[in-house]
Design goal:
By secondary structure, the protein is mainly β. It is built from three helices and twelve strands, in the order ββββαβαββββαβββ. It binds fe (iii) ion.
């Protein structure tokens, strides 16, 4: 069995946003998909460690903003590499509006948004899958949607750009393939979670500098 077969699946990237008790929050997901067209339903799967997960569990409401190829890396940093438990992810942000459901959606670096109301939840262990009916949606631009591959190739800064110091040369580290964080040591503990993007050790690759 070749686990790399999973890399052949295509994924979009999305800002998943929600609102509860005066607080707007959001995170990056790659798991939004239309599952039925009549009625129009989408599914999302969200890591239980995310604050966004808890808020959607509580309110049953969310928006999915579809990220487009003109998105800047800082959009991914803002929503993907910090926790809403520590910061207000919308603070100081330019480029968002409030949808008819009262939840923010992103207008810059996105080409559409979809508002949805949860009908069914499925407990998947680490994640919950939410199946939700679409309540509103708009197209925001004609720029193509980002794929995970496009993000890796064109938006994420290349780690090679960081010069390797003489001290680091030959050193083994484990690099997060999602955000570029480097774990200093070898092997990486199996239960290691990236402190920046919260992805597990299985998303790290061994790098010899
Ligand atoms: Fe990471």
């Amino acid at each position: 069995m070749n686990n790399k077969a999973m890399f052949k699946l295509t994924y979009g990237l999305f800002v998943l946003s929600c609102f509860s008790k005066g607080k707007h929050n959001g995170c990056i997901i790659n798991t939004a998909a239309q599952v039925t067209s009549s009625p129009n339903r989408i599914s999302i799967a969200v890591n239980k460690a995310n604050l966004t997960h808890d808020i959607i569990m509580e309110t049953g409401l969310f928006n999915v903003s579809v990220i487009s190829e003109d998105a800047q890396f800082r959009l991914f940093e803002r929503f993907g590499f910090q926790s809403g438990r520590d910061v207000d992810k919308f603070e100081g942000m330019v480029g968002f509006e409030k949808a008819s459901n009262g939840i923010n959606y992103v207008t810059k670096g996105t080409n559409a948004y979809i508002s949805a109301k949860v009908e069914t939840t499925v407990d998947l262990g680490t994640h919950t899958m939410f199946i939700a009916e679409v309540t509103d949606m708009e197209v925001l631009s004609d720029v193509p949607s980002v794929t995970y591959n496009y993000y890796q190739e064109n938006i994420k800064p290349k780690p090679q750009a960081k010069p390797v110091t003489a001290e680091e040369k030959g050193k083994t580290v484990w690099r997060c393939t999602v955000c570029g964080y480097e774990y200093d040591g070898d092997p990486i503990p199996e239960d290691f979670i990236c402190p920046l993007c919260k992805h597990p050790a299985s998303d790290f690759e061994k790098v010899i500098k």
